[in-house]
Design goal:
Alpha-Beta Plaits; 3 domains; alpha+beta; single chain
Length: 243
């Protein structure tokens, strides 16, 4: 009984830590969006997306308001957005979006992660033909017909809908984000997750289980870094290596 409770407690602590890290990244995104284009979501596309994400992740309202004030110049660190591009083992492309108040610290950390797990940071722009940026929404597939949903969303900018594991992934051009979100609300479809994502135009198959594990570890340590907002890669999922 005691051991089981301890496991539950440890699991909850891990979940709380993940939630806290997620809050921090979302709030930083809100602050940067306000700093770059003002505190009004109707005229600030980046802020609109960050606020939707905050709502989806149940970020407390007080925290959101403080992040907006920080972005408006009421104290807080001066963060800047920097992207890092590189390759893991077997030529797997890895794109890192970061927000930092100390670029020297951030690139030092990111280089060390790549080096430790067999990769290397490349030059800026080296992955420009590997990923494309899209507006992406995830919704539960329950009771939804893909053909009907596509017809309903096509005028809002929907380009593609994919079904997997009980969820639908809706994709459209970056500039269609607002219209797609509005249309999903009108259709009373609950959005599980949304945002602007970098989707791979081509993927890499890794046949060696050891290398596969090292690439996943590299992605994991990058995601855990406080300065990193998002990590994208183009490695093919291999069910055999994940079992």
């Amino acid at each position: 009984m005691g051991r089981k409770w301890n496991n539950i407690k440890m699991k909850k602590a891990a979940q709380d830590k993940m939630r806290s890290a997620n809050y921090t990244k979302i709030l930083r995104e809100i602050t940067m969006a306000v700093r770059s284009a003002g505190p009004l979501p109707e005229s600030n596309f980046g802020l609109k997306i960050a606020l939707v994400k905050a709502k989806e992740n149940n970020v407390p309202r007080d925290n959101i308001e403080r992040a907006i004030k920080k972005g408006s110049g009421e104290g807080g660190e001066n963060y800047e957005e920097i992207n890092y591009e590189g390759y893991g083992l077997d030529g797997v492309a890895i794109f890192v979006e970061a927000a930092t108040d100390n670029p020297t610290r951030t690139i030092g950390n990111i280089r060390s992660y790549f080096n430790r797990w067999g990769g290397a940071v490349g030059t800026q722009g080296c992955l420009q033909f590997v990923f494309e940026r899209k507006a992406v929404f995830t919704v539960k597939a329950d009771g939804l017909d893909i053909d009907d949903l596509t017809m309903n969303l096509i005028d809002a900018g929907c380009e593609d809908i994919e079904s997997e594991d009980g969820f639908l992934t809706i994709k459209g051009a970056v500039e269609s984000y607002g219209e797609l979100h509005k249309k999903l609300e009108e259709l009373k479809i609950n959005v599980e997750e949304s945002g602007l994502e970098r989707l791979p135009l081509n993927t890499k198959e890794v046949k060696d289980q050891e290398n596969y594990g090292k690439i996943l570890k590299l992605v994991e340590v990058l995601e855990e870094d406080d300065d990193v907002q998002k990590v994208y890669h183009n490695m093919d999922f291999n069910e055999a290596f994940n079992s």
